[in-house]
Amino acid sequence: MRAGIDSRRLAAVLIANGMLRVASAADGALVGFYLAHLAVQGRPVGAALVGALGVMANAAELAGAVPIGALTDRYSPRGLLVLGALLGAVATQLFGISGVVAIFFVSRAMEGLSAATSGPPLLVHLSDVTRLDPPARGRVMSFFELTLLAGVALGGLTSGTLWDGIQTSAFSALAGVYLLVAALFYWGVRVARPSDAPVTRPMAGLRRAFTDPLLRRLAPAWLAVNAILGLWLTHTAFQLTGPKVAGQYLVGGFTASEVGLILLGYAMVFATGVTAWGFILAYVPRVRALRIALIAMFFACLWLFLLNSATGWSAPARAVVLGLAGLSVMVESGFTPAALAFLADVADQGEGRGAAMGVYTLLLGLGNAFGAGLGGVLAGWMAFNGLLLGTVGLAVMALAALMLLPGVPLTRPSNLSTR
Questions:
Q1: In the chain, what is the straight-line distance between the N-terminal and C-terminal CA atoms, in Å?
Q2: Which of 11, 24, 74, 88 makes an SS bond possible with 178, Cβ 3.0 to 4.6 Å?
Q3: With bands split at pLDDT 50, 70 and 90, how would you rate the model's confidence at 125?
Q4: What is the pTM of this model?
Q5: Is the pLDDT of residue 89 over 80?
C-alpha cells in the first residue's frame, strides 16, 4: 500500500471482517445443531422452525441494509461497525442460554441486523481509505472479497468443531469472537471524514443512490450476478449428491464428503483469481474488467456442460476440461471486486455513499433469493444443465446492462473509463 494508507489498521479491519463472516456462518450452523439437540430431547422443534429462523435472520439483514447505509452517511462507520459486532455478541449469547422460541426469533433478528452493519459501513470505510489511491482500491476490494470466502469456507468447520467439543458453550465462544471483532474495528477504523465533505442527510443520500445513472445501470448486472451466486450455492450440493439423471455425468455422482472437497477446491481457485484481479484492476478500467469476467462466465458454463456430458470419457480428457473450467472461474472471479471498486468510484463523486452501499447490499440479498428460486425451477426441469442454463441467461442480462454504461456521459475520474 502507498504511504497514505495505514496498512496495519487496514489489515486489522479486513481480518475483523473475515472473523465476523466466520462467526456469522458458524452461528447459523450452531442454531441447527442446537435445535436438533433440543428435538432429540423431545422438545417441539422441527425443520419448519429452522426454516422460519433462517427467514427471520435474512429478512432482518435485508431490511436493515438500506437504513444502515443511510445512517453511515450521517454517522461514523466505526461506530456502526463496533455496534454491529456487539449486537452479534449479544444475539449469539442470547440464543445459547434460552430455550424459548420467541427469544430464538429475537436473537436471529438481532443477528441479521448485525450482519447488515458489516456491509455498507465497511465498504464506505474502505472507500474512504482508498479515496486517493485507485490502484490500491482494486486490491482492497479483492481482499474484502477474500474475507467473505474465508467466512464461507471456515464457518461450517468452526461450528462443527465447537459443537462437538463444548456444545452449548460454543455460543459463548462465538460471542467472544464478536467482542474481538468489535475491538479490531474500533482500533482499525480511524479515518475521519474530509473537512470539506458535508455530512449527508439520509434521505438526500437515498435519493442520490436511486437516481445516479451509473448506479442504476450497474444495478441489474449486480442483481443478476448475485442471482447466479444464489443459484449455485443453493442447489449444487443436491445436484451432485442427489438422484442420478441419465446423460448427466455430474448429477448424483459424488458423496457429501467429495462435494465438500469440490467446494473447497472451487473456493481456492476463486480466491486465486480474486487475488490476481486485485493487482490487475490497477491497470484495467472497471467496466472492461466487468465485461471480461462475464464473458469468462460463458466459457465456464461451456466447459461444465461438456464435463457434465462426459459419460464414457477418459480421465485425462475430463481433467483437461476441468482445468479449462478452473481457468474460466479464475477470470470470472474478477466481477465482484471490479463491481465494488466501480461502485466506490461512482459513490465518491457525490453524497450518499453509504446509501449507495446499502442499496447494493440489499440487491445482493435479493439476487441470492431470486437465484435460489430460479434454480429450483430450472434444476427440477433439466437438473445440472438447468443451473447452467440459468447462469447463461442471467449472465446475458448482466452483460446487456453493462452495455448501457458507455452511453452515459462520464464526468468521473479516469479509472471509471469504460473504454
A1: 27
A2: 88
A3: confident
A4: 0.74
A5: yes
* Residue 330 near residue 272, CB atoms below 8 Å: yes
How far, in Å, CA of 262 to CA of 293, rounded? Answer: 22
Domain ranges of the chain: 7-190, 208-409
Q: Which residues contact 307 (CB under 8 A, 6 or more apart)?
A: 249, 250, 318, 321, 322, 325
pLDDT digits (tens, 9 = 90+) for 51-73: 677 777 778 888 888 788 878 87
Residues 282 and 147: beta-carbon distance below 8 Å: no
pLDDT digits (tens, 9 = 90+) for 189-204: 875 554 444 455 555 5
**Topology (CATH) of 7-190:** Growth Hormone; Chain: A; (1.20.1250)
Q: What is the structure's pLDDT at 390? A: 95
The alpha-carbon radius of gyration of the chain (Å, integer) is 22
Percent of the chain's residues with pLDDT above 90: 25
The CATH classification of domain 208-409, taken from the options 3.40.630.30, 1.20.1250.20, 3.30.70.20, 1.10.1370.40: 1.20.1250.20
* Residues 26 and 41 sit within 8 Å (Cβ to Cβ): no
